[in-house]
Amino acid sequence: MDGGAVGGPSGSAGALAAALNSVDQVVCVPVAGAALRVALLVVQFTALAVLADAHHEMRVAVLDRSADLAGRVVTLVDEALAREPTAFATTHAAQLCGVLGRVEIVLNAVEATFFASSARRMLGDRVVRGWMVQLEQLDKELLDTCALGAVGYGVDWMVARVTAMERSSSSSDNHKPDAYLQWWRPPALDAAYVPGVDNPLRAEHAIVAALQAVCAGADTWPRIGVCAVGGSGKTTACAGVAACEWVRKHFSKGTAWVQLDASSTLQSVAEAVVALVHRFCGSDAAMQLSALTEDKNFVAVAAAYVRTVPVADASKWLVVIDDALYEKRELLRQLLGLIPSATPVLFSTRSEAVVSSVPGATLVSIDALPADDARLVLAKAAGKAGVPPFSASEETCWVRRVLAKTECHALSLAIVGSMIADRGGAWRPVVDALEQRWMEPDFVCWDSTPPRPSVRAALDVSFGLLPDEVCRDAFAAMGVLPVHVRVPVLARLWRFPLCEAAAAYGQSVALSSGAISNPGVDELVAVLVRAGLLRRDVDKACGELVGVIVHPVIGQYALSLLGDAARATHQRMVDHYMDGVAVDDLDAHGWRLLRLWEVPDDGSWYDHVVRHVAAAWDVCGLVSAMDRAWQVARLRVSSPLAFQADVEVVLAALMAVVNDRASKASLSPVLLGRAHAALALAYNSRIAGCRRDNIEAAVEHCKVALEHVKWSEAPSLWATLQVGLGRALVFRVAGDRVTNIEAAIACYCLALEVRTKSAAPLVWAETHKLLGDAYDVRVVGDKAANMETAIAHYQRSLEVWTRPAAPREWAGAQNSLAVAYRHRINGDEAANVEEAIAYYRRSLEVRTRTAEPVLWAKTRYNLGIAYYNRLVGDKAASIEAAIACYEDTLTVCTREAAPLMWAAAQNHRGKALRDRLFGDPAANKAAAVACFDRALTVRTRVAVPLNWAETQHNMGVTHHDRQGSVATGVVDVDAAVTCYRRALEVRTPQAAPQQWALTTFCLLLALMDGECWSAVIECGGALERFGRRWAAWPAHQGAVARAVSEARRALFGLLSEPSGN
After folding, report:
1. From the record, what ranges are coiled-coil (predicted)?
2. Residue 134 confidence (pLDDT)
């Protein structure tokens, strides 16, 4: 391609040409589509620039602004095509296409004013004023949209490092999709529950009635919102509905239960999504989906699976989403979007606004239990049997008093009944204390302040009647824990009060790994259960206590009792867990690294440690949570979205620290620099929010950190900050791309002044790898020289990153070298392809399907392309190897999980099958056409035009089959011509000159075989006029000339034939 053929204001046409020439090597399909549309814009800008000279100054300004916008997009597209494709880059590119479509609309409108008649020119000028405003908005939107894809490079880098690591033994079984058969089920109903489905005054009756109103087999089932204040029995009502006979009969596949409370994060929602996909689509789909949780569009991918479920199957499920808080309504919206409309959904909430936010939702409110049911709840909780449960004397003496003071509130009744049962039916101390509490002057609690007065009074009485201070301290400490708490966690939490109590009585307490032995824990649990403050969680299979359940309202009450001691309680939890881990003493700057990742996970530590260190305002702990080792451990044990939940907690906590004057003053400059460095890492890793803003924040915090940390005081940290700033600059979208990359390279070089191979070999290798990545995308300088420098840096990193010492890093560097050799400009092309194949093979020694399925699939795909392009060796064997690679990729990258990658693999598999030298040629051709047809179900002209054209071209080549393996008939020639002409609708001389020339030449050959002589002359003339702008023109010039000459002779012969009489 001639770099000057397509001029543009940004001078980026040459870069675009290079990108388009390598489109077949790229997985990330939409980027190429975006490249085509940018090229079209560049051409249009060039034409308009000439017209603009004689037109209004304002329109020239609009044109210049548009040109600047397009120029930056060309650079972004070029970079996207040069990189290894990722799921994030796919999303980014698809959004980029949409933004570019809007840029085209603006440009077309401006163009209309250039060609408007003089009578309409004034109107055109007024319209153009609005376009400048729109371009400003598009500029910002384009930056935001492009930035969403940029995060994928960083996340993929991290995923590539960690997905090979086995999950820890304590959690590996929990994350297998088959475990979802046990998870996500309705909670067991409390012994005091009174069924309400048959009582018209109960919420359960209203819910079932709403479900019964829908005809069996209907395509759409209701969304029912159950709304009440905390502790009113929303969860119990939903569990009661799920357990009733009518529901179990009509929803035969069962009930899927999703908890969406205050502790819900991206990680817990991702687990819920996988659980729902497991319910609807089976374990295979759930296994595939679980490998994609790092994708920001994870829920949308899951929805693609669920949409395939037949209505008849979907209507056999009931889904319950429990405790959807107002601040979590966006997560509720995502989950509702995933669930088929043929599946009924119940969701409970404390806010009617949440119900209103769900289109068409039915509201069911709960205020209080009917008086008769309230009596039954109280009777069961108090251990009373019989019909009626209370005598007339009991009704008069205390039952009516309790109903009045509890306001027939379910939680209040359960607490009061438990206290009476604990006293063997002695009701007077409980009831008198309850009434007395309502009368005390300090009892100030309004309905608008949780908990409601009846609950607060019951809790105050229960807390006051606990037997001693140890029990009260133990209960208050529960405020720092989540709803579901396992026994080992309780043992750590209660270590302090139980040890103090034992010391007071001269007793010893048995410790095990920093925890109290179970007898003391069991006794405390028993006391608090009898007080109505906890519920036991018993494993029915083994008959043992495995944990407790704390009602959210009771947990909030316990936290209020802690007050200022909450911070110390959180810190004690961290300290108790860290007992068995070596912790360094504070250095001169007040810093010590907390190796959070060295603590074995007990099912609670990994999910809650960051919350604990944040609540404790432990700056060292918060900084440690952004250490790469914690990221690796978090991804290994949980998922990328679990780490994202940690990122949000760290951001909020550290921002509070650096913005608080007192806290800031208490930190040394170096520790304050570490805090800013951790904020930079958090923003750099963050998925939520505007990516451009996140990267800008990362750059700013890196710069602030470097202001606080001097090379002379902390050289190693200073070098780490330089690397952090370099990373942020590489990903930066705002500002000048050239300046950002050059600054990043400078930062890495500065870091290498400290990070020497002898002093710090591992980080030395890492820095060289990053330098290689930077030179790979470098904009200035000679591209061939930059690629050689990148290769040199990758090879230097391998001096330390050997396979035995650092297998994942070694595999990543091998893959980077493979990509670099595939795109290498210097050297022998055949030798470069062989090098790429060798490096891909080495990478696959570590990136196995079992250990790293996604990276394995991507690497196999790229290896397939290398085999297909191989220039030496047995061609038949190379094509067979390519086919095997593509088929391997398709076992992981399914249409539902990764549609664009799936379509790209189908397209390349079709090419390989078409050129296959083994097997039946007709069968190979039919299989190739089937692959292209499948690819085109995703590669549509609207979504990804350039790749749609590529597949149309490949289809044309397959139909024409000029190599003679299958006889080509008239029908095949006509089909080939149709495909080529479709491809040329997008592959124009201006937008894709090299591809246009190739497709036009193929069309010429097909037209020759079809004896369409006039069309042959037309195609040949177009190619001759294009001439040397086609890189392959010297090799094809003679064939074109011969075709045109033959067509003219044939056409002359036809014209010379005498006409019949």
Report:
1. none
2. 66
pLDDT of residue 283: 75
Residue 539: beta bridge partners?
A: 544
Q: CA Rg, the chain, in Å?
A: 34
Q: How confident is the model at residue 120 (pLDDT cuts 50, 70, 90)?
A: very low
**Structural element, H or E, at residue 638:** none
Structure tokens at 931: 């692959």
**Closest listed residue to residue 355, CA positions, set 452, 237, 199, 222:** 222
Q: Where are the domains of the chain?
A: 20-116+124-158, 180-367, 386-415+426-460+470-505+518-564, 969-1056
**Distance between terminal CA atoms of the chain?**
53
Amino acid making up residue 1052: F
Higher pLDDT, 998 or 95: 998
Residue 109 vs residues 8, 116, 259, 465, 799: alpha-carbon distances, Å: 19, 11, 51, 77, 57
Q: Fill in the amino acid letter for 44.
A: Q
How far, in Å, CA of 123 to CA of 131, rounded?
13
Determine how β-strand 544-549 pairs with β-strand 484-486.
antiparallel
Q: Which token pair is 415?
A: 């607490």
Residue 238 and residue 583: Cα distance in Å, rounded? 47
* Crossing angle (nearest 10°) for helices 566-577 and 495-504: 90
C-alpha 144 chain-centroid distance: 17
Q: Which amino acid is at 947?
A: N
**Euclidean distance between CA atoms 440 and 543, whole angstroms:** 44
Q: In whole angstroms, what is the distance from residue 575 CA to residue 614 CA?
A: 14
CB count within 10 Å of CB 745 equals 19
Nearest to 668 by CA among 624, 628, 713: 713
Residue 989, phi then psi, degrees to nearest 5: -60, -30
Q: What's the pLDDT at 448?
A: 47
3-class state of residue 164 by DSSP: coil
180-367, which class in CATH? alpha beta
Q: Residue 515 in 3-state DSSP?
A: strand
Instruction: Answer whether 336's CB lies under 8 Å from 225's CB.
Output: no
- CB-count burial class (<10 Å; 0-12, 13-18, 19+) for 441: exposed
CA distance 64 to 446: 62
Task: Provide the greatest CA pair distance for the chain.
Answer: 129
Residues 299 and 275 sit within 8 Å (Cβ to Cβ) = no
Predicted confidence at residue 862, as pLDDT, reads: 93
Single-letter code of the amino acid located at 359:
P
Separation between Cα atoms, residue 865 and residue 912, nearest integer Å: 9
pLDDT tens across 51-105, in order? Answer: 444 445 555 666 666 666 665 555 555 444 444 444 445 445 545 555 555 665 6
For 1024-1056, give the DSSP string: HHHGGGSTTHHHHHHHHHHHHHHHHHHHHHHHH
Determine how β-strand 223-227 pairs with β-strand 345-349: parallel
Parallel, antiparallel, or unpaired: how do β-strands 254-259 and 317-322 relate?
A: parallel
Token duo for residue 303:
């929805």
* Banded pLDDT at 697 (limits 50, 70, 90): very high
Please, are residues 931 and 910 in contact by the beta-carbon 8 Å criterion? yes
Q: Which residues of 921-953 are buried (b: 16+ CB within 10 A; e: fewer)?
A: beebbebbbebbebbbebbebebbbbbbbbbbb
Q: Tens of pLDDT along 825-857? A: 999 999 999 999 999 999 999 999 988 888 899
Rounded to whole angstroms, the Cα distance separating 16 from 492 reads 60
- Whether 202 contacts 370, CB under 8 Å: yes
Q: How far apart, in whole angstroms, are the C-alpha atoms of residue 64 and residue 234?
A: 60
Phi/psi of residue 935, nearest 5 degrees: -60, -40
- Using the structure block, give the residue that is written with the tokens 């940018």: 38
Q: Which of 265, 290, 252, 279 is nearest to 340 (CA)?
A: 279
- Of the candidates 428, 433, 427, the one whose C-alpha atom is nearest the C-alpha of residue 378 is 427
DSSP-derived 3-state class of residue 402: helix
